[in-house]
Structures are given as C-alpha cells and as structure tokens.
Amino acid sequence: MKASLIELHRTADERLQRDGQRYTANRRALIDALGGSDRPLSMPELLERSEGMAQSSAYRNLAILEEAGVVHRLVTSDDTARYELAEDLTGHHHHVICESCGSVLDIDAPPELEHGVHAFAESVAATHGFAVSHHRLDLVGTCAACAAART
Amino acid sequence: MKASLIELHRTADERLQRDGQRYTANRRALIDALGGSDRPLSMPELLERSEGMAQSSAYRNLAILEEAGVVHRLVTSDDTARYELAEDLTGHHHHVICESCGSVLDIDAPPELEHGVHAFAESVAATHGFAVSHHRLDLVGTCAACAAART
DNA sequence: ATGAGTGCAAAGGCTTTGCATTAGG
DNA sequence: CCTAATGCAAAGCCTTTGCACTCAT
C-alpha cells in the first residue's frame, strides 16, 4: 500500500490545491521526511530532516497538511506530538509505544483482529450514537533499548 | 469489578503508604472525584469537583497517585491530560474519544476481541523484543452532541 | 518540633501567533 | 504586482517548580 515518493508528492499537491494551498519547498521537505520514515516523527526529528526550516513554519505547515488530509498528528504518552502520513497514504497500521523513551513504531495487526475491531466499532456507533471515524490500537510498554539501558 | 468507594479509599491508602506517602484530604478528594466518574476527567473537571484545591496541588497529588499505581494519566487528542483510576481498580476498559470536543467515554470490549488483542500483543513482544505492559484500543470520531451542534 | 503537604506565584516546554520580509503565480 | 509563505521573536497554554506557610505525627 505504501505509495512511491513521486506518487506521494502528487497526491499531496492535489490535496493542498483542493484546499487552495500551494505545495511549497518546505511542505515538500516535510512530506519527504515523513514518507521516508517507518514511524511517526517528533518535531525535533522533523527539523533535523528538514535543513534550515523554521520551527514555526514546520508547525504551520503540518497543520495545513493535516487539514488537507495528508498528514496525521498524534499524541501518545509524553507531551510532544508526533506526525505521520495520513493513513490512506501509508495503509492502516498500529503503534507500539515505549512509555520510557516515547518512541513509536509502526506495526500491522492480523486481519482477524481488524475485523473484530470493526465489528466492535459498529456496535458502539449503533449503541451510543457516536460516529466512529477510525480506531487506534496501541501496544504500550518498554522497548528493547530502554529495557537494556535500565540494567 | 468497580470497587466500592470505601474499599477504593482503603486501597489508595495502602498503596500510598507502601510509597511512604500520606492519604491526605486533597488526595482523598481526587480519588472521590475519579471514583465517582464513569470517564476520565480533565484538570478543570477535577478542580470543579475538588472544592478549593490549588491546581498545583492537584497536579502534584495526581503524579504521586500515579506513582503509587492508583491513578492513570492519559493523553488523547487534544493536549490536555485526563486522569482515571488505575485499571486494576476500575476493570479493563477502552475509550471512545470525540475528536471535536475531546470528551472521553469508558467502554468495554467483547472478550473475544480482548483475546485477539492479547494474542497480537504476545506475538509483537516475541518478534520485537518489546515488553508490552498494556494495550489501548480507542474508538475515535464525533460524539452525538458535537454532531448535533455542527448542524 | 519536624518533615510532608499546601497555595501562590513564577518558571518551563511545547506550540501558536504577530509582523515584517521574501517568494511564487 | 499581490497574496501566500517564511523566519524571527513574542505570546499562550498546560504543567512543573520554588518557596514560605500550615498541618499532622
């Protein structure tokens, strides 16, 4: 499901134009950074990968990219946000979150499990009049690195 | 699984003592607030329910209560934290999160689904050397109130 | 008395906003 | 040209910390 970078840029451009936004060099750099990662990136990580971009521009552009449905902002356990490409661009996946260092890893769940979650979501929607737009299934614990460091 | 308030206070007291902490009036008030709610509470909500408590005391005591394993802090979508009783005091449950107003509702998942999640967690633990301590399964969308307001 | 707990106010850290400058169409 | 986008610095907001005071043991 992972789209090529070229295709990714095309899609981003389309969605921004639909919102009356331009696909500038800064926005391109952010998409490159996110498209080249197999996990969500924090602001420091994004700035490292985006030579010379002002932090305020990064925040502003990420907000615009999220608005356009290209990027997704997520908050896990620590209070720093992380960003990833929208799910329809990366394929549905879940997160393994280290509560010690805050790092996040992408991971896929077996189809049976996804089915179960969808059924659950539908029953909740029906029961509570709640419009479920998506679900999150995170595994939280300690990553190998942190477990080792804690020795 | 929901313990009586009396039992809850006893447990909180025990766990705090184990940490060399006292079970003060402020801490009691926080536990009362959380124990009397069927959903996680934000700081403003907690202060409303805790007559005259200083915000700094609330933050400090919640941190101590979390350390003692009585309270759990969670961050959902907006950047305000919410607090609930530790899972072993409330029973395992999941959250329905409104991305419009940030409200959170507690909910139970069917046992089959929980089984599936556990199996998944174990396979990830084995594959990635990641120590899974717990999981989160959230349904994200728009609550009935927000859907109505948006008319 | 003695240290934990509290409230108030100040400081911190991530994120957002104001404003003058630069650049894309 | 004219508006959108950028960078810098200032402001905001939630949360944490410093400090003097109070309370319980």
UniProtKB/TrEMBL annotation, chains A, B:
<dbReference type="InterPro" id="IPR043135">
    <property type="entry name" value="Fur_C"/>
</dbReference>
<keyword id="KW-0678">Repressor</keyword>
<dbReference type="GO" id="GO:0045892">
    <property type="term" value="P:negative regulation of DNA-templated transcription"/>
</dbReference>
<dbReference type="GO" id="GO:0000976">
    <property type="term" value="F:transcription cis-regulatory region binding"/>
</dbReference>
<keyword id="KW-0238">DNA-binding</keyword>
<keyword id="KW-0862">Zinc</keyword>
<protein>
    <submittedName>
        <fullName>Unannotated protein</fullName>
    </submittedName>
</protein>
<dbReference type="GO" id="GO:0008270">
    <property type="term" value="F:zinc ion binding"/>
</dbReference>
<keyword id="KW-0805">Transcription regulation</keyword>
<comment type="similarity">
    <text>Belongs to the Fur family.</text>
</comment>
<dbReference type="GO" id="GO:0005829">
    <property type="term" value="C:cytosol"/>
</dbReference>
<dbReference type="Pfam" id="PF01475">
    <property type="entry name" value="FUR"/>
</dbReference>
<dbReference type="InterPro" id="IPR002481">
    <property type="entry name" value="FUR"/>
</dbReference>
<dbReference type="InterPro" id="IPR036388">
    <property type="entry name" value="WH-like_DNA-bd_sf"/>
</dbReference>
<dbReference type="GO" id="GO:0003700">
    <property type="term" value="F:DNA-binding transcription factor activity"/>
</dbReference>
<dbReference type="InterPro" id="IPR036390">
    <property type="entry name" value="WH_DNA-bd_sf"/>
</dbReference>
<dbReference type="GO" id="GO:1900376">
    <property type="term" value="P:regulation of secondary metabolite biosynthetic process"/>
</dbReference>
<keyword id="KW-0804">Transcription</keyword>
